Automatic annotation (TrEMBL):
Keyword hit for tRNA processing: no
Pathway assigned in UniProt: Cofactor biosynthesis; adenosylcobalamin biosynthesis
Residues in coiled coil: none
Gene Ontology MF terms: precorrin-6A synthase (deacetylating) activity
Signal peptide: none
InterPro entries reported for this sequence: 4pyrrol_Mease, 4pyrrol_Methylase_sf, 4pyrrole_Mease_sub1, 4pyrrole_Mease_sub2, CobF
Biological process (GO), any one: cobalamin biosynthetic process
Name this polypeptide is given: Precorrin-6A synthase (Deacetylating)
Keyword entries, A-Z: Cobalamin biosynthesis, Methyltransferase, S-adenosyl-L-methionine, Transferase
Domain Tetrapyrrole methylase residue range list: 4-226
UniProt cross-references to NCBIfam families, sorted A to Z: CobF (TIGR02434)
PANTHER family linked: COBALT-PRECORRIN-2 C(20)-METHYLTRANSFERASE (PTHR43467), PRECORRIN-6A SYNTHASE [DEACETYLATING] (PTHR43467:SF1)
E.C. number(s) listed in UniProt: 2.1.1.152
Length: 254
């Protein structure tokens, strides 16, 4: 039976690869890569560099497909349906790749940025493909260093405080208000810098972009002081690279 590995490759630093990830990569026949276009070509280039570094040349194949576009203009009510449509479009591509590019006794892999269990769709998409019943395969998941882990490590702080909860949420949710009963909040997927609504709060921010890469940017401090600097750096980086991936921790002071 076909076998699929969903391999977390870390937040950007090639040294984030675990020994388990490298071992499975070396036993993989086909690597599936979704191309996000020229603007984000460095994400594809990093994956290829990891393969060249850790796997003997000629022992594997790379199959690329264009990643479908997601409707990023959808409002609150339409957001979940838009994500569902995008996942189904991706499932169409995954199904075709596995059926047409992977032999019955071969293994394939998807190299997932960060950790496959945290704000990534690969597992859900593979489950959708299996539920359709058109192609059979088994799959496993290899954890990776998430952007959250990389963020707090680079800022030399903990994710949580003693006997206190921590919540991971999105910029869209943070825009609705600071979560109740939680003083430590990690925010991902924040395209609109929702932290700006909390500059009057007694909160520190630990922010990072392009974590683990040569372009890494880090800012921390009281949010009222750090927010303008983050906005400036974020705008400059997005203009220079054409895209940005950032994550931050908001921490209420005692």
């Amino acid at each position: 039976m076909r076998e699929i590995h969903v391999i977390g490759i870390g937040a950007g630093d090639p040294e984030h690869l675990t020994l388990q990830a490298v071992r499975l990569m070396r036993s993989t026949d086909v690597f599936f890569v979704l191309d996000k276009g020229e603007v984000k070509s460095d994400l594809t280039d990093l994956r290829r560099e990891m393969l060249r570094t850790h796997i003997p040349e000629g022992s594997y194949r790379v199959v690329e497909a264009r990643d479908p576009e997601r409707d990023r203009t959808a409002g609150s009510a339409a957001y979940s349906p838009a994500v569902g449509d995008w996942r189904s479009a991706r499932a169409d591509i995954y199904e075709r790749l596995i059926a047409e590019e992977l032999g019955e006794d071969e293994s394939g892999a998807f190299l997932v940025w960060g950790d496959p269990s945290l704000y990534d769709s690969t597992i859900a998409i593979l489950d959708e493909v299996l539920a359709r019943g058109n192609v059979a395969f088994a799959y496993d998941v290899v954890p990776g260093v998430s952007s959250v882990s990389a963020l707090v490590a680079r800022h030399r702080t903990g994710l949580n405080r003693v006997a206190r909860p921590v919540q991971i949420t999105t910029g869209r949710r943070l825009a609705e208000g600071f979560p109740e009963g939680v003083d430590d909040v990690v925010v991902m997927l924040d395209a609109h810098q929702a932290f700006r609504a909390h500059t009057d709060d007694d909160v520190d921010i630990y922010w990072g972009a392009y974590l683990g890469t040569p372009d890494e940017i880090l800012v921390s401090g009281p949010i009222a002081e750090a927010a303008p600097r983050i906005e400036e750096l974020r705008a400059e980086a997005r203009e220079r690279k054409g895209w940005i991936m950032d994550t931050y921790l908001l921490r209420r002071r005692p």
